[in-house]
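Reopening this one. Same input as before:
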Amino acid sequence: MEHQGNRFMGCDYNIETFYQDSKGHLGLDEYRMRNAEAIQKHWCLVFVAYSFLHLDCLPSSPTKGSLPVKTIGEACRQQAQALIEGLILYAHKCLELGQRAEDFFTSLFAKQSMVMAR
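Same output, byte for byte:
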């Protein structure tokens, strides 16, 4: 019986870790003022993002009992850095091809400005 208790305690730890990481890094708690369908979609996106980040944290050839090689927070920071680097390279390429900086940023933030105008 004690073995099952230890197993459930491990589940509690995993759930709490997921909850804290998802709130702190992925915006799990940022669903206010949305309808039920939007909340469900938001949570699904958080769960999918967490799953991908968790896979990124695992060792390349995991064995039973092996621990992740990095935390969810480290994986988030690494992905954010890669995204920013990609955006900078994309902006550089567009500017090199002659696109005006003002036009580039207008197109980059077009959807955001439409959402903010609502």
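So the earlier flakiness isn't reproducible anymore. For the record, The chain has five helices and no strands.
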